[in-house]
Amino acid sequence: MALLITDECINCDICEPECPNEAISQGDEIYVIDVDKCTECVGHYDDPQCVEVCPVDCIPLNPNKVETEDELWQKYRGLTGKE
User: Fold this and answer.
1) Which pLDDT band, with edges at 50, 70 and 90, does 60 fall under?
2) DSSP β-bridge partners for residue 31
3) Average pLDDT, integer, range 51-68
4) How many alpha carbons lie under 13 Å from residue 28 in its C-beta half-sphere?
5) CATH number for the domain formed by residue range(s) 16-80
6) Domain locations in the chain?
7) Phi, psi of 53 (to 5 degrees)
8) Is this model's pTM higher than 0.85 or not?
9) Where is the 4Fe-4S ferredoxin-type domain (predicted)?
10) Residue range 42-57, pLDDT digits in tens
11) Cα separation of 45 and 72, whole Å?
């Protein structure tokens, strides 16, 4: 499942450069995660890097984008071209 940045975001700019898929960008009021690019860092790291660095713990799983680990791996392969 993709991740989601909640309205508790303080726009600290820490998460965006940590995302290996460039799925995080500045939205109108807070940072947002592109669900089509978010793999929860599957294929890159053991844990989602944005969650690891977030100082306010505002990046939960997105209940509107439920994905299995296999689906996350497929997305990773599609984004990176790696097998």
Assistant:
1) very high
2) 26
3) 96
4) 0
5) 3.30.70.20
6) 16-80
7) -95, -10
8) yes
9) 1-29, 31-64
10) 999 999 999 999 999 9
11) 13
Strand partners, 59: none
Residue entry with tokens 């294929």: 43
Dist CA 56 CA 79 (whole Å): 29
Sign of the C-alpha dihedral, residues 47, 50, 56, 60? Answer: negative
- Residue 3, classed as helix, strand or coil, is strand
Q: One-letter amino acid identity for 20? A: P
Which of 72, 11, 74 lies closest to 46, judged by CA? 72
User: Exposure string (b/e) for 27-41, b if CB count within 10 Å is 16 or more?
Assistant: eeeebebebebbbbb
Length of the chain: 83
- The two most distant CA atoms of the chain are separated, in Å, by 37
Q: Could you write out the DSSP letters of every residue in 29-73?
A: SSEEE-TTT--TTTTT-SS-HHHHH-TT----B-TTS---HHHHH
